[in-house]
Prior knowledge:
Elements: E1 14-16, E2 19-21, E3 25-27, E4 49-55, E5 68-71, E6 74-77, H1 86-98, E7 103-108, H2 113-125, E8 131-135, H3 146-149, H4 152-164, E9 170-173, H5 181-190, E10 195-198, E11 202-205, E12 207-208, E13 213-214, E14 220-224, H6 229-242, E15 247-250, H7 256-265, E16 269-272, H8 275-278, H9 282-296
Parallel strand pairs: 3-16, 4-7, 7-8, 8-9, 9-10, 10-15, 15-16
Antiparallel strand pairs: 1-2, 5-6, 6-14, 11-14, 12-13
Helix pairs in contact: 2-4, 4-5, 5-6, 6-7, 7-9
Amino acid sequence: MMTPQNHDTPNMSVDIGGLLLKNPVMTASGTFGYGEEYACYVDINRLGAVVVKGVSLNPRQGNPAPRIMETPFGMINSIGLQNPGVKAFVTDKLPFLKQFDVVVIVNIFGETVDEYMRVADTLTQADGIHALEVNISCPNVEKGGMCFGTDPEIARDVTQRVKSVTHLPVIVKLSPNVTDIGEIAESVQAGGADAISLINTISGMSVDIENRRPHLQRVTGGLSGPAIKPVALKMVRDVVKRVSVPVIGVGGIMNASDALEFLIVGAKAVQVGTANFINPRATMDIIDGIEEYMMRHQMQDIRELIGTLNEGEGLC
Ligand code: SIN
């Protein structure tokens, strides 16, 4: 899956729990559709990985509208995991992505642990999928989602059960809506997670003051975008210190500088989400920007950058 690199350019390839990516830049689930929606803007072959919108056992229509609201430096969504279901994903969506030389990661969701296992099993039997990202962090559904990601025992159990039905690398996507994200990270690592991605959105809401009603039909949603970057960065730093599996940083990454911050605190890869809605070519710009930074700092390999935060002396 990895294309050999030109010797003049730095080596940006990373190994995420046995999954080899040509560079550390992935799309974040739910912000890039199933790839096809962005193919006229982005050279999909250049991406480290495509992470597709969450897939469940049965089709889901999602929550009633309005389900997106812009906020200062971000947005709140309450989509409710709309998707065509795992069978339609495999027959109708996956063939498009299989044309490319890109790592395909499918984000999976279940209302019950059994559903997570059945989705994972079906996807494992399909050709063209390289890893699963287990979504135990969606704040917009009644059953499953965040309910599984806020209790360490349940988070470990879901991870273990998904691992039991697949040989694919399993990434577990964590919720920031917990007291101690490091504890949840340790639990999913104990359950066999090959990598951990964080953070999903932060629970929030927004009110229309004229009619005194929530802007979102379902009242609350998940906040994403630049507003959450400092929170995500701090949580990534905390989790990197607590686990040995690779950590993937997500949350408000808008440009190469943001991505570099996550890599410096120890994320081995990053996911770009809300930025895709503002600049559909954000991922391309971020790959170019990381490469430019490495060349400017005379780095030959991305490992010279990852986890190099100097916390020693503070600033003044
Ligand atoms: C949604 O579909 O509601 C968002 C997905 C997520 O937060 O995981």
